[in-house]
Design brief:
Structural class: mainly alpha
Number of helices: 6
Number of domains: 1
Strand content: under 5%
Low-confidence stretches: none
Shape: rod-shaped
Radius of gyration: 25 Å
Largest sheet: none
Helix content: 40-55%
């Protein structure tokens, strides 16, 4: 299931992955920098700096990438219906009461 939060609520890796999914909207410098940041995150075990995070969020908002993830929330979610309880089947198939009772 997709995450529908604003960029401020996303983790660093999710934010960078979303930016790189739309690489055609990024400049060459942004593409190179965001790719390097994404690959460095697991190795450095640190978060993005505040300036890096602000830059990534600014590019995310400038390209209006949030619109790609909130287009149709209702149809994107899958709701499982609960399995019927076996006792419900027994009650549904029981004989009706005779008339006049």
């Amino acid at each position: 299931m997709k995450d529908y939060r604003e960029p401020e609520g996303l983790s660093d890796s999710v934010l960078l992955e979303r930016l790189l999914e739309h690489e055609e909207q990024l400049t060459e410098a942004e593409l190179h920098a965001f790719t390097d940041m994404l690959f460095a995150l697991p190795h450095s075990r640190r978060k993005l700096s505040s300036k890096q995070r602000e830059w990534a969020e600014g590019v995310y908002k400038r390209n209006d990438l949030q619109a790609h993830y909130v287009a149709n929330i209702a149809s994107a979610t899958k709701v499982r219906s609960a399995a019927p309880h076996p006792f419900d089947r027994v009650i549904a198939n029981r004989p009706l009461k005779p008339p006049g009772r």
